[in-house]
Design a protein that fits this description.
The chain is mainly α. It has 2 domains: about 5-180 and about 295-325, Rossmann fold (3-Layer(aba) Sandwich); about 210-290, Tyrosyl-Transfer RNA Synthetase, CATH 1.10.240.10. It is built from 12 helices and 5 strands. The protein has helices spanning about 15-35, 55-70, 85-95, 100-105, 105-115, 120-135, 150-165, 210-220, 235-250, 255-260, 265-290, 295-325; strands spanning about 5-10, 35-40, 75-80, 140-145, 175. The strands form 2 sheets. Strands 1-2-3 form a 3-stranded parallel beta sheet, with helices on both faces. The longest helix is centred in the C-terminal third of the chain and has 29 residues, at about 295-325. It binds tryptophanyl-5'AMP (TYM). Tryptophanyl-5'AMP (TYM) binds near residues 10, 41, 44, 183 and 195.
Length: about 325
């Protein structure tokens, strides 16, 4: 059997170049490599304050970006997390083999809980258990993600291993797939921080749907460093990030990019990166608008995906329930 691949993406915040290079391109490639399953994780979105009336619209936004990028529901299973209740039930069951201390040590929990002004919800602490349930429900072996999700994938491995040790071989222990180039795209204004719609700067965050002149402006004003050489170095985080971006969007090695721009100066280099990113994102932006306008079609696609997802997740859940001493089938079924 070919490898089963699973990944999820949040419907919060508008998707940016980091999401695109670090994760979305890997989702598209996964369709040719194995049995690919992708999910818009709307249940994760409620772990921080959110606008309930805008949630569905954000789910459609993200779905249209993924389809525009090349996800093809004929070649992958694509669904909305909240349509498949097995995820929430499995979260509770897995919480019995999840160490509370591990959850409090997650970088994302520490960062996000420190930045909450009002309620730090238990959902924020539980976030990685739901994420483990997402992957383990499908017995996926490979999880394509950016570098910031490394720790969460490690935790889901621990959960699966602990479950198997305690209740017998039931779950597949997954592995992350983190790209060599572009796993951690940094903010253009603060290159020591990762690009993010919540933790970065608006001017330093390039959105997938930004107009071309906006993209160019953001790259032209990108922070570089003193010096003039286009080369990667620990004390040149701004230039290193731009090299990585250009390398990812033109599918060349970082060394080839450094060789091409050797001696050309930062101004010309920044403009060249901006232009390459525009060329890279333009087809996606154009297809997006067409796909986003047909919500009925997006709903039809989600309904088909949910049926297929339930069939797989339901089987795993029955095995998990049995292994844990419950009746395999839930009441009412
Ligand atoms: P989310 O929606 O925040 O991000 C989606 C993907 O984008 C990657 N990413 C980046 N890659 C490179 N550079 C960046 N600056 C950058 N910022 C984000 C993320 O690593 C991610 O792969 N917890 C997940 C969603 C999730 C999930 C799952 C993922 C829920 N269940 C199961 C895999 C498997 C998240 O917050 O993604």
């Amino acid at each position: 059997m070919s490898e089963r691949i699973f990944s999820g993406i949040q419907p919060t915040g508008r998707k940016h170049l980091g999401n695109y290079i670090g994760a979305i391109t890997q989702y598209v490639a996964g369709q040719d490599r194995g049995e690919a399953i992708y999910c818009v994780v709307d249940l994760h979105a409620i772990s921080v304050p959110y606008d309930a009336s805008a949630l569905q619209s954000s789910v459609y936004d993200v779905a249209a970006v993924l389809l525009a990028a090349g996800l093809d529901p004929e070649r992958c299973l694509f669904f909305r997390q909240s349509d498949v209740q097995e995820h929430t039930e499995l979260t509770w069951l897995l919480s019995s083999v999840t160490a509370y201390g591990d959850l409090t040590r997650m970088h994302q929990f520490k960062e996000k809980s420190a930045s909450q002004r009002e309620l730090v919800s238990a959902a924020l602490l539980y976030y990685p258990v739901l994420m483990a349930a997402d992957v383990l429900a499908y017995r996926a072996r490979e999880v394509p993600v950016g570098d910031d999700q490394r720790q969460h994938v490690e935790l889901m491995r621990d959960i699966a291993e602990r479950f198997n040790a305690r209740f017998g071989e039931t779950l597949v222990v997954p592995e992350h797939r983190i790209p060599e180039v572009g796993a951690r795209i940094m903010d253009l204004q603060m290159p020591e921080r990762k690009m993010s719609t919540t933790g970065g700067t608006p001017q330093g965050t390039v959105l997938v749907l930004d107009a071309p002149n906006t993209v160019l402006k953001k790259f032209r004003s990108a922070v570089t460093d003193s010096g003039t050489e286009v080369r990667r170095a620990p004390d040149k985080p701004g230039v290193s990030n731009l090299i990585e971006i250009l390398s990812a969007v033109t599918r060349r090695t970082p060394e080839a990019v450094e060789a091409e721009f050797d001696g050309s100066g930062y101004g010309a280099f920044k403009t060249a990166v901006g232009e390459a990113v525009i060329e890279y994102l333009t087809p996606v932006r154009e297809r997006y608008h067409e796909l986003r306008s047909d919500e009925a079609e997006l709903e039809r696609m989600f309904a088909l995906g949910a049926d297929k997802a339930r069939a797989i997740a339901g089987e795993t859940l029955a095995d998990v329930r049995t292994a844990m001493g419950f009746r395999a089938v839930r009441a009412g079924q």
